[in-house]
Amino acid sequence: MDSASKSVLLLQPLKFQAQVWTTALQSQQIEVIEEPVGISFSQLAGQRDAIERANIGLLLVDLGAQHLNAFDICRWYHDNYPDLKLILTAGLRKKVLSTERRLALEQGAEDLFPGFQQDNILPAAIGRVRRILEILRYHPLEEQNLIDDLMAFYRHGAVPAHKLPTPTEMAFSTSRQSCPIDFEENPQTTIILPERAYSVQRLSSPDESPPPVSPPSPPQPKLSKFYLKASLVALLLLIAGFWGWLRSPRQFQISPIQGAANLALTPTFSEVPDVPEGLYNYGGSATWALIRPQVEDAIAKVYPNLQLRYVETVQGTPGSGQGIKMLLDGKIDFTQSTRPLNDEEYAIATKRGFKVTQHAIGLDGIAVVVHPSLNVPGLTVAQLRQIYLGNINNWNQLGGPDQDIIPFSRQSGDSGTADYFQEYVLQNEPFSSTVVPIYSTTDALRQLNGATGGIYYASAAEVLYQCIGKPIPLGLSPDKLIPPQQGKPTQNCPPARNQPNLEAFRDGSYPITRSLYVIVKENKDREQLIGEAYTDMMLSEQGQKLIEQAGFVRIE
To answer: Is 510 helix (H, G, I), strand (E, B) or coil?
Structure first.
């Protein structure tokens, strides 16, 4: 146990959640440093020196802070603060799916907590604060201090008077709380959807004052007696139910390796509820082309009256960006993407009177390929970045032959892969003027075959099955280069083809991975109905198997 003082950096845009966390952590002599709501992750990354001076040991980040998902936050965290601990929270979500928690754990987070609810603050806080103290290797939980401070928080009007726990409820809550997270055993379609939970009050600015809270009326004696009797009955029922739960078989189990839960998914497409009939248009990511035919065939067998039609844009090149634009413009019913939604797209949807949500259904690795005759041991992500920024322009600068580098790329704005590459590899800097723009991966590989110094990046599932282009290992450092394919690159293609290194994508040792999304239009109309049904099918066991067979990583 470390006796030195501890500090936690809090990035919680929801006022109520931030207040509970601050009260609970300060009750344990943990200093809370709260960042302003509007701070961006790039600004936060620039505060490294200040964070080190403040002896911060834990980042407590809500997934709604930047409208990002767990993958993106964990990747930002690994890049900027790998020595700190990270816990993610999910706003006002009452529960988180075990698959969501597992994803967060696999990406390097210590845990993923649902939001505090007004009727269960005390038991939830006890479990979660105890978990944080363990992670920080600090003192054991000072439970009475936590209870006293939270009760004071209640009394100051943070929670309506009728939500105040009775002494009986409080005693039961403190004794039964042993797990810091609530699992939801019935899988839903949502995988970390901050925008669904964040239509609530944000943190007030310093010049704002909270609304006045009326003091609670003094309780009447008869009501108190009745309330205590009712509480006792409720307590007995809860104990009986809890005992029955302990005696019943679990629907999930904690993995001793991952520390995560395995949750049974809906088995097949035929068991997905509320699947509509009729003709629906969709569009988006070119990477998804690897799985579309199999999914459409499987859906047609089960739902012959449902017809899905992929629609390409008439302007620009097919891709995630174009698909999202078509969805916002009302030209398609849902779309597929290899990048998350951005703030501008959220704003456009809001302005037009609906919401859009992103549902992560799988994970993809981005592979880099070169001309088959080129001999280079591999690249670090930093070297790859310098190539596409135009600062490295000959392979002899990287241990290769004296050969000019010819980088190829699809157009950012249209291609989700190019957007992702520009944001996370180039760190939002523009592509060099030396980069040759191409229409598609097929076009890129055709040109690569005639360019000895050529280099290209694309979805591993998409590019490794081709027999043109040699995949090269990537890493964050030269001594930790990981190949995007299983084993050595095959020399007999076809019939033998390179297979994606799914294990490295899954465990995070491969440095460039991203999520696959279904983007749904939430308008309480036919578009939302088909979008959610399609998401449910992709998150079923049958859908996840199709994802894995296509060369992607399943999420459960």
So the answer is: coil
**Backbone angle region of 330, left / alpha / beta, with phi > 0 → left and psi within -120 to 50 → alpha:** left
* CB 553, CB 362: distance < 8 Å: yes
> Any idea what DSSP says for residue 415?
B
For 50, residues 6+ apart whose C-beta sits below 8 A from its C-beta are none
Convert the pLDDT of each residue in 387-419 to its tens digit: 999 999 999 999 999 999 999 999 888 788 999
Question: Residues with Cβ < 8 Å from 360, sequence gap 6 or more?
Answer: 69, 71, 103, 191, 192, 515, 516, 517, 555
| Radius of gyration of the CA atoms of the chain, in A | 26
Q: What is the pLDDT of residues 522-551, one digit of tens each?
A: 998 999 999 999 999 999 999 999 999 999
Q: Report how far residue 530's alpha carbon sits from residue 335's, in angstroms, rounded to the nearest whole number.
A: 11
Distances from the Cα of 405 to the Cαs of 357, 368, 371, 386, 417, in angstroms?
40, 14, 11, 11, 21
Among all chains, which residue has been given the structure tokens 């009745």?
Answer: 226
Amino acid identity, position 50: A
Q: At what angle do helices 221-247 and 167-176 cross, to 10 degrees?
A: 20
> 313 vs 16, 316, 441, 530, CA distance in Å?
44, 7, 17, 20
